[in-house]
Task: structure prediction
Amino acid sequence: MKALHAALCVEEAEVTVKELRAALERAGIALPSLRIDPASSAREASCPRVERGGCSIEVATRLAVAPW
Result:
């Protein structure tokens, strides 16, 4: 049961990362290091976290004013 839960969590995280990347691209923002955090998905009962990665001040400013 834990394995199924972990697989579903990873799948959901992958879809979410794709959707977030697409939304950011529509706003003209690229975060190349956007990904699933590998350490959070290495646990036995994996429920991964999304790692946004570092970004420049320019990108952070654009994120802050993006019309969400």
User: Anything to note?
Assistant: The first strand starts at residue 35 and ends at 36. The beta strands are 35-36, 50-51. Residues 31 and 55 are 7 Å apart (CA to CA). The helical segments are 2-26, 57-65.
